[in-house]
């Protein structure tokens, strides 16, 4: 009897362990529909930014209130990675008649934009070739991993709502739907609170939802081709709520995303012959100022004083830049007062500076240390032709000083 | 069988006579009342619907399944084992002509029945409250899923109870069992979030497995796997727990 009991216990313990181990292993290996969707997104982003020479992305959203269309947005993005060129066509329609469509074209040396409301072609030319990628992989950006972890935790038990059907040609279809019982109450509350802010009555063409707002349904379908690339994804959500009169509104939002014409998309530069064209040259690109010599010289602004309810000019703040080459910036700052206002002069605000480019990337900030040892910076804005002096205490009594300086061309 | 029945009735009566069962019932009702007040607050304060008549029981379930239920399951389980060890009342139980296996099984059955009673009570009260105070959103489908969700929550809760039984037989003092259980619960919860791909292995994630029964497509494969994992760990924990119980000297 004693032996039998021991054997029974041993057998049942082993059985339990085996059962647990095998199913646990199977469970880890089995990818949920959510994971497969995530994989497809990653593959698509990677292929689009590394492998495909060209592709077209379509994106459209439609919003309806109880069946009446409130607005639509359509966007077509064409990318040609081999030429670093891209073309965007976007159009939006709203129920209040506020429609617009626009088109942009961009390659290494030009950027062209035109819109329906203003049929002028604005052309910007870049003297230096731009190094921008036509399409960058969002999963490779900083913090993408953390966002993915957070998304996984939020999705949590909803992962199993995505159902995968595999077709014989290797492509896959993914379907998911959630109705109000399946959406966790907290998620529903946060989402509907967010959405309620959108329908706050400030936009005259959107209904104003005040009561009983909730997410009624979320649905989605996706198609993944045999290479694992997401071809299309269609999502829709229904938000229900009452307005002040107690009328129930069911607002549905549908979004469609498609990738097509992989390696067969042609990006065309718009034909500008016979069109009204406004041309300009990009003065600089990035933080490097193309011709830094232009910043050597005298920069100034007026010192004002508030007196008898009027502004009176009492002098000038002057910055003399003796050397500037995108790496170092040297010069002097001083103030000149008009006769009768000399008492405002202050020796603290009369100094020389020898500033070096800050370590931050893509910044046109130049840092220097004052004689007293405090760190200050000067910012050079090549676009507006101004220099900003940061960190100097500017206001003193009724005296009005400014930190931005423009070139003195007189 | 008659011996087992007698042992079971004995265990249930002990459980029923304790104040803990009453406190558990009162606390569960408090959760329902507080939950409903929160929903009313959200509704009038933020203009959100909060929860409809069917969502309310689901909201209550999602809260209690991670708080009140495991807590009282632990308390009742510890009482039934560690409590009787320390009071030496276990000796009285064992002097009866009942095998240790039957006593062990009767104790566990009583605990499972307690969990079931709690779940049913929560289901009925949250449904009544849900229908009384919230806009009606019920369909037969969602109603059926709600009832089913409550019933299937019994299984992971029973596995949890078996886990605590094992701890109660491993450690002497009921207090240390209680704290170890709570600590393990929190650790598993955190691990489930950090390693979400392995989360289905943790006992604490299995407490939420009722969600699988809400999925429209009824993911049979996933449900079966989860069921097997729970069954496997249940058998293991039961055997290990009984082994220790059988060896114990009183």
Largest sheet of chain A: 12 strands, mixed
Instruction: Please indicate the count of domains of chain B.
Output: 1
Average pLDDT of chain A: 84
Question: CA-to-CA gap between the ends of chain B?
Answer: 25 Å
Radius of gyration of chain A from the CA trace?
32 Å
Q: Specify Rg of chain B, calculated over alpha carbons.
A: 19 Å
Structural class of chain B: mainly alpha
| Sequence stretches where pLDDT stays below 50 over 5 or more residues of chain B | none
- The run of helices and strands of chain B is HHHHHHHHHHH
Give the strand tally of chain A: 21
Instruction: Note poorly predicted spans of chain A.
Output: none
Tally of helical segments of chain A: 4
- What's the total count of β strands of chain B? 0
The helicity of chain B comes to: over 70%
Structure description:
The complex is a heterodimer of chains A (410) and B (250). Helix content of chain A is 18%, strand content 43%. Chain A has 410 residues and is of the alpha+beta class. Chain A folds into two domains: 33-260, no CATH class; 292-407, Lipocalin (Beta Barrel), CATH 2.40.128. Chain A has helices at residues 2-29, 33-50, 144-155, 185-198, and strands at 54-65, 68-80, 85-94, 100-106, 110-115, 121-125, 162-166, 172-179, 211-224, 230-242, 248-260, 277-281, 297-307, 310-324, 328-337, 351-357, 365-369, 375-381, 386-390, 399-400, 404-407. With 250 residues, chain B is mainly alpha-helical. Chain B contains eleven helices and no strands. Chain B is globular and about 60 Å long. Chain B has one domain (2-247). Classes of the chains: A alpha+beta (410), B mainly alpha (250). At the A-B interface, α1, α3, β8, α4 and β9 of A face α2, α3, α7 and α11 of B.
